[in-house]
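Dear colleagues,

For the upcoming journal club I promised to circulate an example of a predicted protein-ligand complex. I picked one with MRU because it came up in last month's discussion. The inputs are reproduced below in full, followed by the predicted structure.
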Amino acid sequence: MRVDGRPFRTIWSPEPGCVDIIDQTRLPHRFETRRLVTLQDAATAIADMQVRGAPLIGVTAAYGVALGLKRDASDATLHEICATLRATRPTAVNLQWALDRVKSHLTSLPPPRRLSAAWDLAALMADEDAAICEAIGDHGVSLIAEIARSKPGAPVNLLTHCNAGWLATVDWGTATAPIYKAHEAGIPVHVFVDETRPRNQGAALTAWELGHHGVPHTIVVDNAGGHLMQHGMVDLVIVGTDRTTADGDVCNKIGTYLKALAAHDNNVPFYVAAPSSSIDFRIRNGLGEIEIEKRGAHEVTHMTGETSDGGIETVRITPASSPVMNFAFDVTPARFVSGLVTERGIVVADAEALAAAFPERL
Ligand code: MRU
């Protein structure tokens, strides 16, 4: 996608042996790239959320293995590298999926061939992720086009939560891909962007990228979605996923479940853009079987913003002595999901449909 007219991906290798990322902790105030040179750089980038979003976490981990193997490509080191990266964030299954894929490919090769194979595979996975997201866009745009036909001339109003945009993937995004495709096709769209406390991925990242692409949007506080839906202001909700189970339960950014409940109560279609790398066919029950990441209190007690003189400042917004709980994700049961927009088409959120769409994953 483009930033000030220049095409960018979220991650790329500018020269052998290193990887560049867009540092998402600096947006929307600063657009800065950061160079990752060591395994620890990659692990820190994921844990501190310089890169975030399930698909991008997976691809960063793949590059992280290549960075780690520069030191030594033995079985023991490969194992250690994967364990380090696996421990960075627990919920998005793309991390495990990517590491399993990379590890199984590399262990089939003799150590001297592993380093260059790791770089090749990471680059391939980045390209594949971009292609998968674009395919999600090509399938999902039909949902928007159908609504547009029912209200000629008026914009289709979408609501999205967190950032499942191109910043969360290598390119295109998942939830945003159908929106970008619709916008490109001249279908009028308008996006309500949930701010997504505590880290504000909606207000900071989704709004930033939609703005750079000229997509009309409005930031709303997290609690506004129900009201908007009750008043017929949302035609379609589309969100991303960090892990979708074989039965179609969807784990995504905290607050997604409440949007699904409001959508259900107001007959608003609620779709989840789900690349197959985010589907965990090993588990069925999203409520019992997914580890929900708990993050630090600082994300809740403090907020960072730009001052009027252009500086960046972090301030406390809570009483210093109040305890805090900070769950990063929740689970929306499959019964509230109108459909999963995958790279292979729009699939009912149930075991049968998912198995039929991805038989090789069973
Ligand atoms: O904590 P984050 O910012 O990594 O959470 C991101 C989300 O919840 C996204 O919706 C999800 O990863 C899908 S990204 C295409």
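Two points we might discuss: The mean pLDDT is 98. The radius of gyration is 20 Å.

See you all on Thursday,
B. R.
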